Amino acid sequence: MRPATARRVRALATLVVAALALTACSTTVNETRNNAACGPFRSGATSDAVTARGTSSQGPTVRFPTPLRAAGSQVSVLRQGSGAALADGELARVGVSLFSGVDGSALQRIGYTKASVLPRQAGGTNSLDKSLLCRRVGERYALTSSAKSVFGAGAVAQLGLKDSSTLVLVVDVRARYPGKADGVNQLQNGSLPAVVTAVDGQPGIVLPGSPAPKGERSARVKAGGGATIATRDRVLVKFSQFAWGATATVQNDQSWTNRTAFAIAAGTASAEAPFGAKLVGERVGSQLLYVFPGQQAPTVWVVDVLGIIRG
């Protein structure tokens, strides 16, 4: 691979992870490639021109004529799914095959293995997240949209693509998860921060009047009723990190601000997720509070346990 091409692929891969960093509605049993029954986008000549066959760790084989020019964002269902439709704020684990509509070149494939999990939240502002509304597990669909609608203005200029360039995305909906912890509220410990949540589930904390603890502490804010987490499970979580000082300061809120989630290895602690080792034995649907000592101030983590990644 030429150096310039390699740089282009690496840059696009970063964009997909970062940038791919409405309401519930029902569909009829005879939903066709025309998506008119549900969702913000409809099918059209551009999305209908896309076909996809097979599935592997590298995704499906995709074909479409070039150059392809999208008139707005279009969605065509290539394979129907089953179960409940994704509602605004719910998470989907997806596999995405991304192509240039200009010349048909493959730009990135991600989300088809456990090593490349890609969770996205239905709704939001970019066309990929919007397109997930009302989709079902097992469904495959083609999304044709401008680069600006998928990634934002100017995001693909370094790749030689214009904001108006058409991108083709074939999306496989692999699993569905709640967008926030849905367990039963528990009585909170008065010596630890109190957790308060917005309607969408985004947490904040209120510090107690007592000093911060000197060692590690934890509490269950919501008790989930889902599957119990075992060692080596890959767990889908949202989390927020705060510094415990004179006031609580947000240090990391990416999963909420970017409308996504993270896959954490249960039983293993890391700098990015020091709570990972403590997830073993917890249940899906729980919201957990952890306090860890720090060099300058303790850090507080609020973790929503959303699911276990299977397959």
How would you summarize this macromolecular structure in one to three sentences?
The protein is mainly beta and 311 residues long.
Fold and architecture overview:
With 311 residues, this protein is mainly beta. It has 2 domains: 3-176, Chitinase A, domain 3 (Roll), CATH 3.10.50; 184-308, Chitinase A, domain 3 (Roll). Helices cover 11% and strands 33% of the residues. The protein is built from 5 helices and 17 strands. It has helices at 3-19, 45-48, 127-131, 147-151, 254-257; strands at 51-53, 61-63, 74-79, 91-100, 106-110, 119-121, 140-146, 166-177, 184-185, 194-197, 203-206, 217-223, 234-244, 248-252, 262-265, 287-292, 299-308. Strands 9, 12, 13, 14, 15, 16 and 17 form a 7-stranded antiparallel β-sheet that branches. Strands 3, 4, 5, 6, 7 and 8 form a 6-stranded antiparallel β-sheet that branches. The chain has a two-stranded antiparallel ribbon with strand order 1-2. A hairpin with a 5-residue loop joins strand 4 (91-100) and strand 5 (106-110). It starts with a helix and ends with a strand. The model is unreliable at 1-11 and 20-36 (pLDDT under 50).
